[in-house]
TrEMBL record:
Cofactor(s) in the UniProt record: FAD
GO cellular component terms, semicolon-separated: membrane
Lineage: Bacteria, Pseudomonadati, Pseudomonadota, Betaproteobacteria, Nitrosomonadales
Keywords: 2Fe-2S, FAD, Flavoprotein, Iron, Iron-sulfur, Metal-binding, Oxidoreductase
PANTHER family: 1,2-PHENYLACETYL-COA EPOXIDASE, SUBUNIT E, NADH OXIDOREDUCTASE HCR
SUPFAM superfamilies: Ferredoxin reductase-like, C-terminal NADP-linked domain
GO MF annotation list: 2 iron, 2 sulfur cluster binding; flavin adenine dinucleotide binding; metal ion binding; oxidoreductase activity
Record's protein name: Putative Ferric reductase domain
Top-rank taxon: Bacteria
C-alpha cells in the first residue's frame, strides 16, 4: 500500500534578535516547542526562554516529560492545567516574566486564543512584529 508523507509545515524557526523568548503552547500547540526543546538539549542556544503550556487535560507522565525536556534545554517551564490553575492570559505571563518587553513571543494553539494574546500584548506595548503565531491550517 503506497503512503504519501508531507511536511513539515509551518513557519516557526525561533530566529530573531530578541535576547529573550516567551513560548506559549496551548493544548496540542505544544508540539513545535517540544521539538525545539529536544534540539536545544543537544545544541544549546543563547536566549533566555520561558515556556508556558496551558492544557485542559492533566496527565502526570506527560507533564513530567515536558518538565524534564525543559530542564535539559535550560528553559523555564510554566505549566498550567485550566481546571486547577486557572486560564492563561497576558497578565499572568507578564507577572511571571517581568522582562517581557525585551522578549519575542512565540505562540502555537487555538487561533482565537493567539489573537487575544497578541492584542493584549500589543496593547501593553509589545511591537506587533515580536509576536509570532503558528496556525494549524493547511496553506
Amino acid at each position: 500500500m503506497p503512503v504519501t508523507v508531507e511536511g513539515p509545515y509551518g513557519c516557526f524557526d525561533f530566529d530573531d534578535a530578541q535576547p529573550r523568548q516567551i513560548w506559549i503552547g496551548a493544548g496540542i500547540g505544544i508540539t513545535p516547542f517540544i521539538a525545539r526543546l529536544k534540539q536545544l538539549a543537544v545544541t544549546p542556544g543563547e536566549k533566555t526562554i520561558d515556556l508556558f503550556h496551558s492544557t485542559a487535560e492533566f496527565e502526570q507522565k506527560a507533564i513530567d516529560i515536558l518538565t524534564s525536556d525543559a530542564a535539559a534545554a535550560d528553559v523555564c517551564p510554566h505549566l498550567l492545567v485550566d481546571g486547577k490553575d486557572g486560564r492563561l492570559n497576558g497578565e499572568r505571563i507578564r507577572v511571571n516574566v517581568p522582562e517581557w518587553r525585551s522578549a519575542s513571543i512565540w505562540f502555537c494553539g487555538p487561533a482565537k486564543f493567539g489573537q487575544a494574546l497578541r492584542e493584549d500584548f500589543v496593547a501593553h506595548g509589545l511591537p506587533p512584529e515580536h509576536f509570532h503565531q503558528e496556525l494549524f491550517q493547511m496553506r
